[in-house]
Design a protein that fits this description.
CATH topology: Cytochrome p450
Strand order of the largest sheet: 1-2-7-4-3
Order of helices and strands: HHEEHEHHHHHHHHHHHHEEEEHHEEEE
CATH class: Mainly Alpha
Largest sheet: 5 strands, mixed
Number of strands: 11
Helix content: 40-55%
Oligomer: single chain
CATH superfamily: Cytochrome P450
Strand content: 5-15%
Distance between the termini: 108 Å
Number of domains: 1
């Protein structure tokens, strides 16, 4: 009876298929699975469980239920979150290579198209980053070191602040000029006068962009780019600003191409153009015009807004804590005096000031969840399985505000970085620049700028608030990709 044996075969096939499927699912189960996390809804994922006004805080709340390694879904995409020093160190430092990918950040990928240093991956990232670090180092060893450039610029800032004639002023623009001009001198070998329209426009772009990317709207854009991209909203302003910046960069590159001397590079763009020339016959070369534009944009953006926002927030904290400011000024008088400018060598003799600069960075927590990482291969992490190309969010807040390492982390207290005898005390938990292979390429420059700009300002001025320090609110106005300080005014009273 043929049909009976046919039925038997079908039953066997079905049983076999079930067994195969079962074994496959147990295999993937044996291989392990993603870390636990709140149950995602279809399409929207965990969006409704997260407070987009403060993602960092929402993630900390989830740790209570799911531990230091958990999964959240931004839209349909699973993202593994690392919370607390142990998990962050294990991933970014102990297993640096596996966690060295850059995760997808739609708002940035739209702009960088995986060129440059910050949002590229693989060979392009390795080569561009290595090349950029070498050039920045070369330029720091030249006749005019980077420290010289920062000192000159800090003195220009002092002159500009004197011209405010003790009137109340919002310092945002002038504080942006210093890091912007330092980067300009490295990339284009020229600085701008503070009244130059081009500089004013550039710095306004930076401020606006940093504010926009820190809003809840951009978090939503990153979760649902294919929908939100076509809606009206602040992302359109952001892309328009960035087009303006790129146009400016392209003009500069064209000027450089016309006056390029292959044997005599003047600045970053020249070095890059020479490298492009050397590799022009290689199809595989990562040194292309697109990569140059985005790399310069990266250096520019990363090198301007982060430093100027940190200083702007820092001055607000110093207004709020006049007792801290007085101690810094005392140390400046003692170590530097009035007749020369502070320099980096002074830092080791100024533990209190050093502690204040560190505490400003720790307290403000500028980039709370870092930029997204991505695992470069399938990995086993603790008892979990994380497949290649999974996005990883690193809570820097959880490290910088760790209560065991920094008692009362919500208080601004330079004592967090001082030992009993008042010496500067290093901490492994100090990670405002991230850590591992993706650590900020400009960390050395940024730390130099923060120290020299703050000491120059306090060497020359008393900071006078417009309200009682007790009434100064230092709560950020936005807390998204970045932490945006409230705007404020103060008077700079020459000493």
């Amino acid at each position: 009876t043929q049909s009976a044996s046919m039925d038997l075969i079908i039953i066997l096939v079905i049983c076999l298929s079930c067994l195969i499927l079962l074994s496959l699912s147990t295999q993937s189960y044996a291989k392990g699975k993603l870390p636990p996390g709140p149950t995602p809804l279809p399409i929207v994922g965990n969006i409704l469980q997260l407070n987009f006004k403060n993602i960092s805080k929402s993630l900390s709340a989830l740790t209570k239920d799911y531990g230091p390694v958990f999964t959240v879904h931004f839209g349909m995409k699973p993202t593994v979150v690392l919370h607390g020093y142990e998990a962050v160190k294990e991933a970014l430092i102990d297993r640096a290579e596996e966690f060295s990918g850059r995760g997808v950040l739609p708002v940035a990928d739209k702009v960088s198209q995986s060129y440059g240093i910050v949002f590229s991956n693989g060979e392009k990232w390795k080569q561009t980053r290595r090349f950029s670090l070498v050039i920045l180092r070369n330029m720091g060893m030249g006749k005019k070191t980077i420290e010289d450039r920062v000192q000159e610029e800090a003195l220009c800032l002092v002159e500009a602040l004197k011209k405010t004639n003790e009137f109340p002023c919002d310092p945002s623009f002038l504080l942006g000029c210093v890091p912007c001009n330092v980067i300009c001198s490295i990339i284009f070998q020229n600085r701008f006068d503070y009244s130059d329209e081009k500089l004013v426009t550039l710095i306004n772009y930076f401020h606006e962009n940093f504010s926009i990317v820190s809003t809840p709207w951009i978090q939503l854009y990153n979760a649902f780019p294919s929908v939100i991209h076509y809606l009206p909203g602040s992302h359109n302003k952001l892309f328009k600003n960035i087009d303006g910046q790129k146009k400016f960069i392209l003009e500069k590159i064209q000027e450089h191409q016309e006056s390029l001397d292959l044997n005599n590079p003047r600045d970053f763009i020249d070095y890059f153009l020479i490298k492009m020339e050397q590799e022009k016959h290689s199809k595989q070369s990562e040194f292309t015009m697109d990569n140059l534009v985005t790399t310069v944009w990266d250096l520019f953006t990363a090198g301007t807004e982060t430093t100027s926002t940190t200083i702007r927030y820092g001055l607000l904290l110093l207004l709020k804590h006049p007792e801290v400011t007085a101690k810094v000024r005392e140390e400046i008088d003692l170590v530097v005096g009035r007749h020369r400018s502070p320099c980096m060598q002074d830092r080791s003799s100024m533990p209190y000031t050093d502690a204040v600069v560190h505490e400003i960075q720790r307290y403000i927590d500028l980039i709370p969840t870092n930029l997204p990482h991505m695992v470069t291969q399938d990995i086993q992490f603790r008892e979990y399985f994380i497949p290649k190309d999974t996005s990883v969010l690193v809570s820097l807040t959880s490290v910088l505000h760790d209560a065991k390492e920094f008692p009362n982390p919500e208080q601004f207290d330079p004592g967090h970085f001082l030992d009993k005898s008042g010496n500067f005390k290093k901490s492994n938990y100090f990670m405002p620049f991230s850590a591992g292979k993706r650590v900020c390429a400009g960390e050395g420059l940024a730390r130099m700028e923060l120290f020299l700009i703050l000491t120059n300002i306090l060497q020359h001025f008393t900071l006078k608030p417009l309200v009682d320090p007790k009434d100064i609110d230092t709560t950020p106005v936005d807390n998204g990709l970045g932490t945006v300080p409230p705007s404020y005014k103060l008077c700079f009273i020459p000493v």
